[in-house]
Amino acid sequence: MADLQDDLRPTAAAGDFDDLADPYPEETVVTAESYEPVSDPDDAPLTRAHAILAAHPVADGYNGLPWALKRLSYYDLELGESTVDTDVPRLRDGHVGALFWSLHLPEGLDGDRAVGATLEQLDLAKTVVRTCEEGLRPAATAGEVVDARSCGRVAVLFGPAGASAVGDSVGILRQLHLLGLRVLTLTGVSWASEAGLTRFGEEVVREMNRLGVIADLSGASPQTLRRALSLSRAPVLCSRSAARAVRPHPANLPDDLLAELGAAKGLCLVPLTAEQTGPTVRDVADHLDHIRAVAGPHSVGLSGTYDTGSAHPQELGDTSCYPRLVGELLRRGWEEADVALLTWGNVQRVLRGADFTARAAQQRRAPSTATISDLDG
């Protein structure tokens, strides 16, 4: 009910934004003081995990189902689909309340081909949601995520998409936003490279803030990550990043960047892949322990990366398995308030922060018409 009450609060008038010092209101964050523990007389970790997740479901930060469905001539996600890792029954068994659908493309696509392929991916994702209206509901804001959950549906947010989807114009980003895109990954293009953000890249970040598109910095260079953290007025996330100190994978973040991400109120979503986090559920829990200690409990979340072709740790083979992971965390002494942040509260905070920043920025900044040739040419 707290989330629903938050969404019913009247929207601030345009002039009120100047007087708000903190762009991430405390009322949107679950804290140890405000969280009410779920009582369970048996106190068995797995039973407690199901009880906690019933109140605070998983917001899964990365799922590749739309691309996986391209190879199937027929599927029924509401009845159940054994050829993929994600369907409505397993989402419900895993207490998944929201998930981000990846619009990433195979390597090698750029320019107009990348823009067109991203539009096709977005169209496919919307079609899949429409065919599963009993189980899924599209969402673009924190309020719509809560509405979907209240109706017994899993909220689907579109993104992240690759930066190549923007082509050479900020105007393309704006049209993608109108079509539902909510997360963009800042890597793999000339304007967000190992050298960092160019002038055009910085303008893309500013327009993302104005629109409410969240910056995804997984795979970005340290220079890009640090510049985006300093430039963005909205919280950023890393959609598939674990702790390099625990497992030295190049896509994982070192402690100094994790600490900077935490200080900026960003969010590190830990992928459930054997390659990045390790072969067992305990390995995943090790990463979550480490990131919570370094970045803080407000900066860690979950990224299933199901249906991406990746191998998953033991006991975490599909979207029904989240209670096993939460049970492992409870065995390690995680407080229920921190579990609630991990599964649901932190993603909601980032979504609300993006919405808040966009409303404020739209009062101060006109839509950008910048192109690469204007700023980097």
TrEMBL record:
Coiled coil location: none
InterPro entries (alphabetical): Metal_Hydrolase, Pept_M19
Gene3D superfamilies (alphabetical): Metal-dependent hydrolases (3.20.20.140)
Organism in which the protein naturally occurs: Streptomyces dubilierae
An MF annotation (GO) of this entry: dipeptidase activity
Name of this protein: Dipeptidase
Lineage: Bacteria, Bacillati, Actinomycetota, Actinomycetes, Kitasatosporales
EC number: 3.4.13.19
Sorted UniProt keywords: Dipeptidase, Hydrolase, Protease
Region named Disordered: 1-22
PANTHER family found in the cross-reference section: DIPEPTIDASE (PTHR10443:SF12), MICROSOMAL DIPEPTIDASE (PTHR10443)
Domain of life (superkingdom): Bacteria
